[in-house]
Amino acid sequence: NGGSEVVIENCTVDMNTASGTGGGAYFSTTTPEVTGCSFSDNQSINGEGGGAYLNIPNGTFSDNDVLGNASASNGGGLRLVSANGTLSNNRIDGNVAGTGRGGGAYVSGNTNAFSGGSISGNTAGSQGGGLDVTGAGVTVGTCRIAGNEALVRGGGLYWAGTGGSIAGTPTAYNVVAGNTAPVGPAVYHAAPSGQDLAAQQVCWGVVDAGAISDLIHDFFDDSALGIVLFFPFIDDPDCAGDPCPEDLDDSGAVDFGDLLAILAAWGPSSDGDVTGDGVTDFADLLAALAAWGPCP
User: Fold this and answer.
1) Contact 122/130 with Cβ under 8 angstroms?
2) H runs (alpha helix) in the chain
3) Fewer CB atoms < 10 Å away: N or C end of the chain?
4) Over the stretch 240-279, which tens digit does the pLDDT of each residue have?
5) Rounded distance, CA 76 to CA 99, Å?
């Protein structure tokens, strides 16, 4: 696929094989939109990107299923080399990078943004069972990165990129839980010392700072590396989320007490922020009114 401004919707790209790169698809185009597609059970025998190889500067890849694909080397599900991509609400699950990195996805392009969806149950022969990031300025938000495995390091994430973030808010956060690797089961932070990774407000599946530290390989294991800044963290061992975030006073119902709490925290404060945008404002009032009554 080449050219620009390509729109692909509701497609099925399943059970294909490529001798080289891009088992299911190879995208090399500017500002494409790929939405609502299935990339499943594809294979790259000698290359990268079992499900798809993405060279899509300024492109959008959203609401797609990338399931059960395999590559010989890097990017079992996806291989992303371009910059400024938006990848949202995708299921990147059950993919395998044979001897390489990035079981779910390998990202070398800069300033790409992942949001929503899942990166789960993937395997990498070396590092980054779920996601391997070497590009600068990459962000990941409200994504479930769980149950991935790397045979060497970085079960959930291998992060060598600089200036990136996996940080969230108390109500909108990443889950990085249940991943495995001999070193850095949750995160292996490979960026150099002084290049820290923002990882505040992440749910790690454990609620003790020492236990979280044990899941991370960073400066405190090797002084040549940057620090994963994981405090404060989400205090939820099940990472189930808050079923009633509008109930700010934990009364079991959304009522006048919660409206008063929102008004008291009005402005650039997260104390009354139920929408997860980092401020307390009219959007939070509207959300509380919409959820009025007993919590589910």
Assistant:
1) yes
2) 209-214, 256-264, 282-290
3) C
4) 766 688 888 878 889 999 999 999 999 987 788 887 777 8
5) 10
